[in-house]
Amino acid sequence: MAESETINFIVKDKSFEKFAMMAILGSTGDAMDIKMNFFFTFWGLNLLTKKFKPKVAGMPTPMKGMGAKIFGKRMKKFGIEDPWQLIKDGVESGNLKLYPCQMTMDLMKIKAEQIIDIAEEPVGAATFLEMSNGGRIVSL
Questions:
Q1: How far apart (Å, rounded) are the C-alpha atoms in residues 129 and 44?
Q2: pTM, 2 dp
Q3: Is residue 1 part of a domain?
């Protein structure tokens, strides 16, 4: 990968699986000193709201929350105590940026004060695509 290349991720799902992918990819890229932008749109925007707890998508409805707890325990066995801390560390190092989609916020009536503090200012799709110019775009 070119030294100055940025990887841009589109997060469009609110599941625990997508959240875990984001945490692992983000922390790995941070350790490799790779710049990464995560753009949260539609249901993925929920991951950036302060009170949202992701659930496992591939389980029956009553068990989705329990599935997230099971995966959380398994992640601890791999040394991942708090996936959010991995993300926060990447943000603090400057390698990882979290961008809420402004249009999705407007459509879903999500206010800026509902978004976690480590997120960047909301941007629109055009701004995200301009930021992504010359880098890779991956959809999660």
A1: 17
A2: 0.83
A3: no
